[in-house]
Amino acid sequence: MESRWRKSESDTAVKIRKVFEHLKHGKVKKDQLLIVFLVGILLLVISIPAGTKKDSNTGTKKTLANSSKSSVGTTKQSEYTAYMEERLERILSQIDGAGQVQVMITWKSDGEKVVEKDRKSNEENVSEQDSQGGSRTTSSHDTQETTVYNSGSSTSGVQEPYVSKELSPQAQGVIVIAPGGDDAVVVKAGDEEITAGVANFYARYTQAQYETYFASYLGGDDMWSRNASDGKTYEESIKETLLDDLKNMALLEEHMEDYDVKLTKADKKAINDAAKEFDKANSQKKKDKVSGSKENVKRVMTLMAIEQKMRAAIVADANVKVTDEEATQKHMQYVEFDYSITSDSSSSSDTTVSEAEKKKNKETAEAFAKGAKTAEDFAAYATEQGTEAKDATFDSDSVSPSKEVVKAADKLGEGETTDVIEGDTACYVAKVTSLNDEAATETKKQSLLTEKQDKYYKKVLKKWKKEEKITVHKGSWNKISFTKLSVKAKDTSTTGTSTDSASGN
User: Over the stretch 180-203, which tens digit does the pLDDT of each residue have?
Assistant: First the structure.
């Protein structure tokens, strides 16, 4: 298992790049997208910058006060409130299953500084006798207070009172919102459950790979809000794919006994070691953002391992085959004579080719074709004529170098050369050099076999989905937003250092 996961970053990048090249042009089905991401999790850690953060609920920025400035006298009331709310949020977030905690504090008082004063008291008693022999005593009490000032003066020249003590603000009320996000169930199939925390980590892991490797392909910082080929934003499209994949993984876990699939001790050790590695490599704040607890990481990796093993067991039961006739690939060499295209405007798509240019180009191609038909070595002849022969393998369904060339070459025998084939942007002359390219045929055979196995695999999953009751709680799933939190991945597989280049909100 470990060897399957321990792919280099470059290998992963190459696979994903191919998907994105197709994705930009709408050539990839949504259920194919996730396949390329299920590698390398043992070595990937999520990188999220710390510091100032954007409050997702209010859209305002909250800056934490320095922990040493805990008294009212050293910070403003608003900063003190933000500091105390953030501190309480951090503490409560450590509780398993608390989810994304939010705290609001209201105050009964703003705090008070008690200034030192000197007090002098005078008391006087006066006794008096009246004419009738009676007596009375009156008392008077006088107190004088004088503010005590610090010795010396401030920089402004004004004396500052001596503060004997400071009273902290009195809290009037505390509101705590703790949705228990990690305990909420997002997907349930039979007895198997996938919690919001597990779903969030799985989604963030995928998001990190998109943003790390291919943000430039999809529009940079605002990639997730851009429209995908299916009319949805990239965030909507990818999240839909991920949710479907979570359903599949829950189903696969539910049916493990059907195929006698189990995780070995080695599998479990690799998963446990990787979870520990992830835990050590990331701060608590970063792990909280992506629900990256050791339990969630282990759960995600376990589901991925089960998926791999179950797919292998299911396709082994498919008993599908590919015949040589289905897979046979021919080989051709061809020369392309491009039309000289002139632009009528600043738009690169607004181009024209004159009929005179087409005619001239075709004449050149016809002269080449005449000589090529008798040339012993097509490629060598092309070089002699100041051009270059290119190689291509093909069958009747191929579209490269063009459908017109493939259609013409497919009718020829080995060693035969086509006439001039006219296309939209070029003329072609091709020679069939082999009716059975063995290497290409074997590659095609494996490709067709994988396609048939995938078809069978999906058929089994589709059958289970009809038979099993699958429950989805979209409320928790919809809370996961790629636009509100940016994550990138760092790979520690080759070096002991890594680069944190993520920008998070």
Answer: 544 688 999 989 999 999 999 999
- Cβ(206)–Cβ(239) below 8 Å: no
Q: At what angle do helices 294-316 and 234-254 cross, to 10 degrees?
A: 70
Q: What are phi and psi of 95, to 5 degrees?
A: -75, 125
Q: Domain tally for the chain?
A: 3
State how beta strands 112-115 and 351-352 pair.
Answer: unpaired
Beta bridge partners of 106: 173
DSSP 3-state assignment of 278? helix
Could you report the per-residue pLDDT of 421-442, keeping only the tens digit for each? Answer: 998 889 999 999 999 999 999 9
Say yes or no: 192 and 316 in one domain. Answer: yes
Q: What is the pLDDT of residue 345?
A: 46
- The answer on 309 and 334 residing in a single domain is no
Question: Do residues 57 and 173 both lie within one domain?
Answer: yes
| C-alpha–C-alpha distance, residues 386 and 364, integer Å | 12
Average pLDDT for 166-193: 75
Residue 163: enclosing H or E segment and its boundaries?
Answer: strand 163-167
- Non-local (6+) Cβ contacts of 226 within 8 A are 218, 219, 233, 234
Of 3-12, 232-241, 415-424, which gets the smallest average pLDDT? 3-12
Asked if 449 contacts 324 with a C-beta cutoff of 8 angstroms, the reply is no
Alpha helices in 24-76 (DSSP H): none
